[in-house]
Each structure stands twice: as C-alpha cells, then as structure tokens.
Amino acid sequence: MSRAEPRHIPPSSLPAAGGGKGGGGTAGLLRSTGSVAVATLTSRITGFLRTVLLAAILGPAVASAFSIANTMPQQVSELVLGQVLTALVIPVLVRAEMEDKDRGQAFFERLFTISLTILGIALVVSLVLSPLLVGLLVGGSKVDEGLTQALVIMFLPQLMFYGLSALFTAMLNTRDEFKTGAWAPVACNAVQIATLVTFYLMPGELTLDPTAMGQPKLLVLGIGSTLGVVLQALIQIPAMRRSGIKLRLRWGVDDRLKHFGSMGIAIVAYVFILQIGWYAVTPILSHASDGGPAIYQYAWMVLQLPYGVIGVALLTAVMPRLSRNAAEGNRNAVLDDLSVATRLTMVALVPVVAFLTVFGPSIGRALFNFGQFSQDDANFLGTAISFSAFVLIPYAMVLIQLRVFYAQERAWIPTGIVIAIVAVQIALSYAVPALVDDDHRIVELVGTARGLAYTAGAIMGWFLLRRILGPLHLTNVARTLLQTTTVSILVTVTVYLIMRIDGLQRMDKSGSLGALVFLAIAGVLCMTLIYALLALWRVPDVLAILAPLRRVAARFVPALRPEAPSEPERAASRAPDTRELRLDEIEAYASLRREEITAQLPRIADDIGLPYAGKSHVPRRPRASAEQSTTGLRYRRRGAFAVTEDDSARRSGNEAPSTGQMRLPSPPPAHRADLPAAPDSGGAAAWGEDAPRGPELIPGAVVAGGRYRLIEHYGGIRGLQFWQARDINLDRDVALTFVDSEQTAPVPERGAQISLRGEGPQSILSRTLRLGRVHSNGLARVLDVVRGSSGGIVVAEWIPSSSLADVAGTRPSAIGAAKAVRALAGAAEGAHRAGAALSIDHPDRVRISQDGHAFLAFPGTLADASKESDVRGLGAVLYALLLERWPLDDATGRIVTTGTGTVAGIRQADADANGNPVEPRDAKRDIPFEISAVATRTLEGGQGIRTAATVQQLLDQASVVDVKTDLLSPVREEAPLQAPRHAPKAAADTATPAVSLDQQPTPAKRIQSKQTLLQRISGGKKNVPLLVIAACALALLVIIGLALVITSLTGGKDPQSGVGSLYTSSSRSDQSAAPAPAPGVGVPVRSTDVALVDFASSKDSATNLSNVLTGRNPAWKTDTYRAGPAFGNLKNGVGFLVTLERPVSLTRGTITSPSAGSTVEVRTATKDEVKSLDETSLVWSGSLRQGANDFHVSTVAPRTRYVMVWITGLTKQSGNDWYTTINQVSFQGS
C-alpha cells in the first residue's frame, strides 16, 4: 500500500501539552456534546435576537449611531487582516502544521506577533483619526455626532479582538478543535444581549454631553458591547492551551508568506474600494434622517436572507462547472453554464423580489415593530426594502461574472467592475438629495441607487464577457426572464389585492404578530401560485427543480406517483444501452439529477459581500488550445447511471446492473492544427501524452480547477488517496478520495467504453456515484465526482470525527462498539439495495463521528467490492473496536489474516490455535457472547453471516441486552433499523473516554417507535418532508415566542406594536389599522395659539406651554406622577390644542421631545375648545424617541385649524417619577 507523505500525526503520539494526557484531543472529540452545526444555528438565532433587541430598545436614532460606530472596527479589522487571513494565511498555516516538526508553533508565533502588531497600529491610527472619520460620516447631520464619537471610542478596541478571534479559530481548526471557535460568537451575542437588557432596565436617559464620558447608560452600552467581542477572542485561549498552542511573541516573517505579497495587496485594495462606498454613502443617510443609517443597514440585512438561502443554494450546482470551464478556456461550455446560472437565478429570485417589493411594509412590521421601533419606523423600513429589493438580481449576476473572471485568472477585471459599481453608487446617491426633499424618500432612493449601481456593474460585466468570449447567444435566458417576471408580477399583484380584504388588512396593521401571520399567508399564496403557473407553462428550469420535490411528495400522496411502466417498457429499460452518448446529452441529464446528489445548504454569512476568490491553481496542457477541452472528459459530476428506486428494488445482493455502459467522447483527430500528433504515434497516443497531469498532493495545494484546497492527508489504499480539503467556493470542509492520483492509468483510447464492472479509474467513479442515493449516518454523503483525463476525485461530506485507530485505542466497551458499527451496517444495507457496495476494506476509510457512529468517510467503490466483502469489512471494524486489532490483510482488505505488523496504526489480529484471528470473547471475557459472535461470524464469509441487514439486526438486539426488551418488536430484514440519530452525552469523568460510544443504552420503547416510523420509509431513507415540516414548525414557534418575549419586555400594551394590540377593541383597531403610505405633500403652517387640554378635575400645569410653538427654553412638561406611565391611574391623558393660522389638511409634523418612550396621539378638532375625545379625530399615534420625531398622516385628514397633541403614556425619569417633556411641535398641511 502506497502512502503520500507527510503522514498525519495522531494526537496520541505527541508529547502531552500542559500536563495533559496524550491523545486527550481524540477522546475529547468523542466525549464532546457540542456540535458545530448546533453552534452555528444558535449563533444565527442569538444574532437575530440581538438585532431585533437593538432596534426595539434603542430606536432608529440611537441605533444609527450604534450601527455606524459598531461597523468601523469591523471594517478596519477586515481591511488590515480579515480577508488576507482567510484567503492566504490559513492555507499556509495548515501546511506549516503538517510539515514543521513543531506542528507550526513557530509559524503561529510569528503570525501572532505580526497580527498583534498590525492590529495595534491600526487601533492607534483609528483612534487618532476617529474624530475626522466621525465628522465625515455624521458631522452636521441628524445623527447625534457626540453619541457616535463616544461609541466609536469604546468600540474601536474591538478591532484587535475581531482579528485575534479569527486567528485563534484558524489555529484551533488545524488541531481538529472546531467546537470552541463555533461557540465563541454565541458567547459574544449573549453578552451583547445582556448589555442591551441592562441598558433598558437602567434608569435615566441617554442624553450625552460629548465631553463627559461617565454617563452610566452610555458606558453600559459601549463597554458591554465591546466586552462581548473581547470574550469571543479570550474564550478560545483555554482551548488553545489544551491543544498545545502557546501564545508567545516571535519576530520575523516566514518565507512561505512572502510568496503571497502581491496577492495580499490586491485583496486589501479590493476591500478598500468596497469600504470607500460605505464612507461616501453614510453621510447622505445621516443627513437625511436620524434613523437613516439603521434603516439602510437593516433593509440590506433582510435582502441578504433570501439570497443566502435561495440564490447561493441553487447556484452551488452550477458554479463548479462554470469555474472549471472558464479556467480551461472552453467558450461554449462557459456560455452554457452562464445560461444555466442566469436562468436558475431568475427562476429562484424574481418571485422573491416581486414579493419583497409588494409586501415590503408588511415585512418591516412583522420583523421590527417592537418597542422604540414604532409602526411608523417599521413602515419606513419596509418601504426601503420595497425600493431596493430588485438589487438581488444584478447582485447575483455580478457574483456569477466575477467567478468567471477569477477562474480565468483575470483578477483586475473584477476590481474594475467593483470600482464602477462604487462610482455609480456614489454618483447616484449624491444626486438623490438634489432631486428629492423628503427625508424618508432620500433614504429609500439611496437603496435604489445601490441597486442601479449593481445593474450597471452587471451590464459592464456582460460587455466584458462578450469581449472575452465572443457573442453571447442567450435566447433561453431572455425567454425564462420574460416568463418568470410576467407570472411573478401578475400573481403578486393579484394576491396583494386579495389580501386587502378588511379583516386581513386589519391583521397586517394590528402589530408584529398579526403582520407575521398576514405575511405567512401572502407568502404561501404567492410562491405556490407562481411556481404552479410556471410549471404549467412548462418552464424547463422550474420542472427540473420541482421533479425531486414531486418524488418526495409521492411517498405520502399516492396520486403523485408516476404510473408504473408497462412490461415492454421495463424490458427495454433492462436492455443494455450501447448507444454513444454525446457530451451535451450527459450534461443535460446530469443537470436534472444533480439535486439528488448535492443537497446541503452552504454557510450563510451575516453580510454577504463581493467575494475574492483567490488565485486558482489550474494545470495547463503543453500543446493544447482552448478548444481541446471540449473533446476529452472534462471534470464533471455524472448522474446518467444512478440507480432508480425501481431498479434497486428489483436487484438484490451485489448483483451488478445488466451491462449498462457508456462510450467516451472521441479524442481529437491527429490532423488537427492545434493538436499535432507525435511523429511515431497515432492520434490517440498523442492525446494521451498531452493529458494534463494533476498538481502535487501536498497540504495547501488546490485541485479541481481551484475549487478545493487540500488540508490534511488521511492515508489511502490501492491507488486511492484520502484527504480532507476546503471547498473554497462554499467555505466548508469536504472529504476527497483521489482515484489514480498519480494518473498512472492509461488514458482511455478512442471509442473506449466505461463499464460499471471495470477496474479502471472511470469505472470506480461511476460505481461510486451510486452511493449518492444512499442516505445514512453510516456514510459520508457523496456530493460530487470530478473526472479527469484518466483518474478523478470523489467529493464527499466532511464529518468531524476521529480515526478508527484512535477510537480503538480508547478501548470502548462492547456495547459502544456495537452501537457504532450498526450505523455502518445500515449504510451497507442501503448501498446493497441500490445495487452498489461500500468497499469497507481498510481502517483509513472508516472514522467515528462525534455522535459515536462508525461511517465510511472516503467513498470509492473498487471493482472487487461486493456484498460479501462489505459484511467482512463490518466484522473487521467491530473486531478492531473490541480488541484494537485488524483482522484483514493490508493489501486488498479481502483476506482474513493474522500477524505482528500494523495496518493504519492498528496491530494485526492475534492468531488462535488454528491460525485464525482469536475470538473476541476469548481475549476479553467481558465482551457479550452475541457481539463476539457477530464479529467472528462476519469474518467467516459465506459460512457465517451473509448480509449487512443481519449484522444490523444482531447488533441492534445486542446493544439493548442490558435493558428491558419485552416491548421490543421484531426487526425485519426488509426494513433494517437505522442507528439512532441522537448524540450520546459526554462522559463526566475524563478518565473513562470509552464511555462516549456506549453510554445511554437505547430503551426498547424508543427503538420500537422508531422502527414503526422507519417501516414507512423504503430502504431506511431519512424522512425528509417530516423533518422539514418539524423544522418549520419549530422555527415558527421560536419566532412567535421571540415576539411575545420582546413585546412584554418593551411594553406590549402599545396599541401600535406588540402582540396585545391584536385583541384591542374594534374602534381602536380601526383607528390604528390605517395604511401608512409614502409621506404626503404639504407646506409648513404657522401656529398662532396653544391651550392646555385636561379633562380631569385636577389639571396639569400650563406653565411654559407657549414655548412648544417656538422651541424656547424652558420646555413644557406634564406634572410628575408615580406608579407607572398611566398618570397614576388618575386620568386617561393630557395634552394641548394648537391653533393654526389657516385651515389645512394635515399631512405631516414634528414633535421634539427628550422623553423617549412616551406614547402620543395627534388628533384634529373642529373648534377651539375640546370637552372630550369624541369631538376629535385620530390621525396618528406612536411612541416618541429622543430628539425630533417626524410623523406622517396616512389618510386624508379633514381641513381644520385645530390640532391636538394628546399624551397617553409617560416616560420614567429618576427614581419612580414619571412625566413627559415637549420642546416644540410643528405641522405641515395642504
């Protein structure tokens, strides 16, 4: 068996660090109860909660100052370190960890010293320049400059800890420690949430004197938020010490970093250009409205959600092909991929854009109508979403174009496109205030300017692509765009008109929960009708997307199942297919089947910007032109011979498919001018000589056209090499199985056929594709197959795990070993039902997940793999976990043998008196007889256990021998049990690491109920629809619970926001449910008189009331009350009546007040004396925030000279005092 060097060094072979036990990292990995997936989900939930609390507690004005100040350290950290660390340093760090004798400790110390120095310099420079930057962003604007400056000073230290946190996480990942880095952002979010709650509960106001930094609420907000980021970095230091990483200063620059100097400069320039746009646009927003920056940021955040979930997921299938074809210079293939990518984008995002545009205000009310973020503010945010929703289409187009340019190593073209985007955005944004006077409309149109800028960038990208690739014949794209846009607009507008029914409209305006229900109803109607009509219109891309969904639904709705084929059709389908498939036919079929292989959603960043793909390592042909790549086997995922469910049901055992074969595309003729034949060889030989050789397999190298970066080698067997790699496009780890990595196999000759029974590399890849249909926790999902001229790569899901040798060394109990292997047995049975085999032949292939499941980590089905060999492999894995011995030979993994050598770090099995491997129970008397018998009889071949289903059944029964089994129903071979999905709890005692595999025995009742569920699923596949429905229900419950908590926290009795308003009286609902369209047009109206309005016998003071007309000091305030905001339960409210100089129809106004949280109503009257509220008409109501509060009258108000400001809720001041202060009021009308 050949192995590539350097070999992976198990943690157990290293000196103990810090006095810890050797190998503790591996045992700790199994004992760990934390999951990276759970941590990521928790981080998303807590991040969303933090954002909503920020808006609800601070309000738009303070939130704008907060967002500007909080963005600055993130941008500085990203500029000086973040992008360079991600694109360049991490691959070199992995390489140093593998190559250096100290596992990269010296390299890390130099990197830590350089990073600390750069971040420290950036912090000092930022602090010095902060007054200038803050003045540039908010100077002379409506955003509080003093508050922003104070927060910037307290937030800027975060930039050091942002950078250090990213560096610590990268270093821990190289030591297989993922949990700490994944949970660190959760800790940050928790601290910041606690900070916001503390800020809300503290007495006093955030009235700031810029020269006084001791204001308590300001200190809590600033220092508490910074402590969250500090904790995010410091929480990782104990884990680094446990992993043997020491934080020491060491000066110097590693030579390996010097090679990336020019690329680092390019990345810094790229990020710098993007940040110029933010610094240029933010002053426009801050001058337009005090809440403008926050509204702009929240609108962009909402738009990123559908793109990240839908756009990225659908384009994932196209991006690898597009990148490889662009790198190879294959013009026709690039045009095809551009067409597919564009059509998928249109089909996926155009309906979403239409929905966001029409229902934007409802989205704002559903997500943000809490506390200080009033319904008026939520309407403002929703309108901003509507004005900028269309940006998703050109934004996605630009990302597709950049991928093509980066694949062709034209790095400066994307930079030019980004420069154009930023230039157009700045120009249009500065033109908006010159053309529009309305403050809200300015913020909304600045978002539109961003969309137009990306549209210009997309147009520029198309022209550049046309110049590089030639004419772009994209007729299908135009047709799909026209069909999708037409249907989306018609359906969305129709649903909007239907939803204007009085009851539904009242629900939309009744508060956040009502708006959420309204939005859910409208969303389901819109998306269902749009895609149903597109399917009836026979749009090909929609049919391709709906095909797998229909197959899933057919499991539960028999009417959706396709009709069974007739007997002649079945006979024809079983006949061998000997026709020669054209390459475009293979690709067309594969595009329809691809979703069955790749289904995992990518990670979604909080703010998805324009990515910098880095430099791709693309092997070049020495004597080939761009056209040559169209004739040979390109890197492709193939699905033409995946077994259908009907086929798999007809096959049994390891019966191979009849004789399905595929002819290879013919190589180019020898007389081609661009590919001359060798003098002494034919065309086929010349083609073989010119076949590209792959890059050297070392950590840090990139393969498959720059798609995957190698991280760590995990052994190999019989021409296969196993690697962990990083998917650069999707930012996730994958498992790579290199088939014929040295490319020693001959290039297929002209007219050669790929047989599924062959031994060549292409046959191995074709057989392995069958495993893409097997869904089990005992098999890493096959995501992709990359084909080369001779060999290829199998891409599988990477599951955090430990090697079989490391786990066997922890001496797990027999029950734990049985539980682990039964998952692998379930995967083997699923593969056998699909007409495939796992090829369990070597310890390097099998790993143990954090859940305690043994699984095939590196799929690659060899020619001699069969059902019998898999059963023998299951016994070998169980034998290794029981005795820490491997009973199969190292060369083929098919012969039961004994000896004194080692196989992948596991000693060979000891021999008994007959020369056979010693029986486990004879070596260790505590092993149950049933488990020992399974291990022994599976190694006997045809004379023992013959099927994987039997292995799984016996291990299921053996693993519950220590619990009551009277309720355990019989396990049938036709529907084998899956291994439990729940992860075992970590052992509390670190001295017994083997507990992680066997604690918490499965109760009989739980197995019985699970078996009943699984019997409804053919082949033990996951019940995907039920899981999706359960996840959606859980998400809905979380959102509703979040709404209830926030509403109760921020005053749920506010009739304009919260849950309680859903059950208010009909009169109040009718008043508050008025729609909130764009601000009305009006002119300022001078106020001539003001009078106090108080219907109680004990009236409030009218002292200084006349100052509300002029804004002079001292300001008028109500009397002081105790026991809450309801005027001590003595009266319903107090206010004043303003007399205007002439009758007008009130359209808008401004109330200036320092009393944040007071609730106010604006009413019109018909005479200068009001004796009850019945004599007035409500035109606006809401909660005040500190400073100027602009309100807009949503309906046509009656013409009058009398406007009453009525205060219904007071603000808590010092101690238990409640009162409201009004500085000035002004009105506009028409």
UniProtKB/TrEMBL annotation:
GO molecular function ontology, one term from the record: lipid-linked peptidoglycan transporter activity
Segments crossing the lipid bilayer: 48-69, 75-94, 114-138, 150-170, 182-202, 218-239, 260-278, 298-319, 340-360, 380-400, 412-432, 452-469, 481-501, 513-537, 1024-1046
InterPro entries noted in UniProt: Lipid_II_flippase_MurJ/MviN, MurJ
UniProt KW Magnesium keyword: no
Annotated region (Disordered), positions in chain: 1-24, 612-692, 975-1007, 1054-1081
Keywords from the UniProt entry: Cell membrane, Cell shape, Membrane, Peptidoglycan synthesis, Transmembrane, Transmembrane helix
Low complexity biased stretches: 979-994
Pfam name, any one: MurJ
Subcellular location: Cell membrane
Predominant localisation class: membrane
GO cellular component annotations of the record: plasma membrane
Membrane topology, as annotated: Multi-pass membrane protein
Record's compositionally biased regions (Polar residues): 1058-1072
Gene Ontology process terms (BP): lipid translocation; peptidoglycan biosynthetic process; regulation of cell shape
PANTHER family in alphabetical order: LIPID II FLIPPASE MURJ
Name of the protein in question: Virulence factor MviN
Protein species of origin: Tsukamurella asaccharolytica
